[in-house]
Amino acid sequence: MKYKLLCIDVDGTLASDDKSISRQNIEALKKADKAGIRIAIASGRTPNSLNEIFKQIGVSPLLICLNGAYLEDDGKAVLKHTLTKEQLEKAYQVIVENKTYAAFSTPQFSIRNNDVSNSWKKQLEKGSLKADFIIAKDPEDYQNLIFEHAQDIVKISILERDKNKYQKIRNEFEELNLYAVAMSDIDYVDITDKQVTKGSAVKELAKYLSIDVNEVICIGDNENDLEMLEAAGLAVAMKNATKAIREKADVISDFDNNHHGVADVIEKYIL
What we know:
six-stranded mixed sheet, 14 strands
């Protein structure tokens, strides 16, 4: 099988635990691009963040952003799935009642009620990421900002380190039956429209590019990559992937995200 599209998750897959991308991964992606493979990054992150990664790689940016809620091809919006007013109102209520941290994301920026992590701050200081968030100064400001930009919000990301509280919040969202709910990283719950996943986005992107889904390779490590792997012609789990992802994959990389696992996959299955 000659593959034509490579879709790669970022955190826990392309990026190391410190959020950096290794020289080996970058060089392998450049080789794949020269071989005629379209490279797409599929992440819960915003376009600004993913475009910064593509600048490091040096290839034309093809983006599956915000867990599949927004697609972009070299700066051109391809598709956007926004959350409805009802979905936003109910989500906001769950977040406030549980006194948890959350970011409401548009394709351009996120509205947060907490600061970014230290690892993100280090990347911002180095200039390898752009600041694409607003931190609300108080609860009233937070609410006003969310509903001021309600027509553009496509994803909600909740950070909760208390495991019992995390599960309670997740259960509440699932019981509402209005959303796609998935873990994207340790302590995070990601919320999109019920029909939106990275898997639905891979199918939409393949159709947009006139590529058969059997000609698509997807690489991931965590729960929000599950549907993406199900959609792929070749589903690849990172060595560090969760059990559910490893069970879903056709193959498992010999290396984890801290040891250039993506480069290993590209060398074996593309080059």
